[in-house]
Amino acid sequence: MKSVDAALIAAVCIAAAPPTFAQTTAAEPDAAHRPQALISYAPGKVDGRSPFRIAININDDADRFYPHTALLAQQSGESHIRCDWNASGIVTACQVINETPVNAGFGAAAVALAMAMGHVDPIRPDVTMVAGAGLDFTVAWKTAPSPCAYADAIMKSDSLECAGFANIRTLGEYYPARAADSEVEGESTLDCAVADEAGHVQCAIVDEKPPGYMFGASALKTTIRYLRVKARQAGQPITGTHFPFSMTYRLR
Q1: 163 domain residue, yes or no
Q2: Are residues 76 and 156 located together in one domain of the fold?
Q3: Amino acid 42: pLDDT
Q4: Hey, CA dihedral for 90, 94, 100, 104, is it positive or negative?
Q5: Residues above pLDDT 90, as percent of the chain
């Protein structure tokens, strides 16, 4: 089965936890308005062979390793590093082989990520786990717009703006299981209304395509649980304000 991303209908990509090893600024955006980190890696080889592989749990906690300045600038990069490990598979040391672009922090970030969240394992059950050195692998660093950038692009409201929404991984978790298993993509449209001055919303399904795969129900659950709105103009009442909200679901 393909992996899934739940992407909104706006033609933009889909929060990252704040990177903690880099200096922050006074104008630090919150998670809903911060560009999102998209981190992936290729397991790599030792001496041209692959008796072992490194596994890194790429989750919201891993996002904090994205170089802070690069994340805010929505700068992508790639880093190639080489690591050693002990007989328990714990990564003990890493060095940067190269990074692109240079001096943007992607090499050091990959080392920190591997040391904190990496684990080396044999690729087959018959391979004995031993300490080793020289495991090369590559980390790719990409960004996506903030969760609220998605929501604002969809709402297109003169009176409302996003105060909070789900990040890309959370949206992926809400991809309907039957649709994912069948490798079916879809979309849904909701009619939403602001439920209270705190910005909670209530929504109803207007349409879903194709029918029968629960895209409407998924969008309904995601939106009611995670979307929060606020008035564009301070002090303006928002309770009862209606707006459309659409989501598309794409397989990666």
Answers
A1: yes
A2: no
A3: 86
A4: positive
A5: 77
Split into its structural domains, the chain has a count of 2
pLDDT for 19: 37
Query: How far apart (Å, rounded) are the C-alpha atoms in residues 139 and 1?
Result: 23
Q: Specify the CATH number for the domain of residue 76.
A: 3.30.2420.10
Q: At 8, which amino acid appears?
A: L
Per-residue pLDDT tens digits for 138-196: 999 999 999 999 999 998 899 999 999 999 999 999 999 999 999 999 999 999 999 99
Amino acid symbol at 211? P
Q: pLDDT tens digit string along 22-78?
A: 444 446 789 899 999 999 998 766 655 668 889 998 888 899 999 999 999 999 999
Range of the domain at 205: 147-251
Is residue 101 reached through a cis peptide bond, with omega within 30 degrees of 0 on the bond before it? yes
Residue pair 134/97 in contact (Cβ under 8 Å)? The answer is no
Q: Which amino acid is at 251?
A: L
Assess whether 225 and 177 both reside in one domain: yes
> How big is the CA angle at 56 (ends 92 and 179), to the nearest 5 degrees?
170
pTM to 2 decimal places: 0.79
**Residue 218, H or E segment:** helix 215-226
Give the DSSP per-residue string, 108-167: HHHHHHHHHHEEEEESSTTSPP--EEEEEEEEEEEEE--HHHHHHHHH--SSEEEEE---
Cα of first residue to Cα of last residue in the chain, in angstroms, is 10
